[in-house]
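Quarterly update from the structural biology core.
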Amino acid sequence: MSAESNPVSRGEDSRDALYRALPSVNELLLAPPLAEFSASHSRARLLETLRRILDDTRREIAQGLHSSASLENLLRALPAQVVKDMQHESRFSLRRVINATGVILHTNLGRAPLSRIALDHLCEIAGGYSNLELDLERGERGRRDVHAESALLALLGQTASAHFDQTHRAIFVNNCAAATFLVLHSLARSKEVLVSRGELVEIGGGFRIPEILEASGTVLREVGTTNRTRVSDYEKAITDQTALILRVHQSNFAMDGFVERPRLEELIALGRRAGLGVFEDQGTGLVETLEPCGVRDEPTIAGSVAAGCDLVAASGDKLFGGPQCGILVGRTESIDRVRSSPLYRAFRADKLNLAALEATLIQYLYGDPEFVPIIRMLHMPEEAIRRRCEEIAGAVDHARLVVKTTAVKSIIGGGTAPRSNLSSHALALQHPQLDASALLAALRQFDPPIIGRIEEDRVLLDLRTVEPEFDQLLISVLNQPLQSSPREPR
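Predicted structure, tokenized:
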């Protein structure tokens, strides 16, 4: 479609001439870059897109919206625009983003990112067949839990200076809520479960402990008061209908002042005296104490198991730093009862979660735990974050965007350590023509989208939750023109 052969370029402005100037679908398919693009993309979808564009253009001509010059410009840019439009349409909806919010375990952003070893093992298992339920030594069917179970028990024993391999077992389901539901349904259906009123919590997504108890078929027996519950309150509530004592991590809130709560060891001692099991929804999956980060009183999964809990449930994608899954570990007889439930098959983890989980466990056991991204973010020195902010701010040369370094507080998030925060630094952005909300929206239009937060009418990009590999990308993005509304394809 050269300018010499195009009747539009010879000044013929009649509608007939404009119609004749439109190329055929086949002509467009042969034009670069469409020719290369069509070799690796759906031909049917490409033909549909081209026909739609040509039909739209004919309607525009009929409405008198095109001159010879405007049509010529449109046709010249059309092949590249079609490629751009189709790439936009075929882009995945679930995309990687840059988390610059400073919330380490951001539920809306997928919580814990996986380590490199976990990603590599996941891809290896996903790309072919595996011994998921095959015992390679005996050549017989095996248990899928075994791949992560031995590593988990070894890790818990290592961190708690105890041995669990002969007395404990573990199973893995699709999340911690599923683990809690399975335990209640398997061990206490139609029976009473004792729970402190101060632990009848609701966490993100409307997950409420009383509703889980009801759905599992158990009977909630509230003990104590909202702010003060003693061991004696549990003891007085025990009847011949009591099946279990449940302790719940208080997740994303904390109580101060005139409060009291029994130590876990006290509940376990009561359970032993009364012949009742004690189940803790520990929640976070924390492996080792966070006291070096200034975070105190956050329970570890190893501590709960070592204290003598019959069963402990935790999330794999919180402070454990692995994939979304529910980790359930406990005494062999209790785990066996849960595993025998017909609902276990419906809730059990799939091979991809198990692969990522096993790799994360191996990283803790035999590698450097700081290669687990969550652990690295938690322990990242404040001074190192400040230096990165200053380097990025110094490299941004934008006519309108003001970029400064400011001290901020990061939070752990994900329903963990609600009292605690971590000292950090952020890039503070301001633009004379965009308010903070518009500026934040503009950053979400880049690829990958940049997610920050707003404080005092400034957009803050907290680098504690941004991997250093993205620093150059941030410099590039912040030097580009910022649009106040999403860029839409033609």
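Residues 1-12, 486-490 have pLDDT under 50 and may be disordered.
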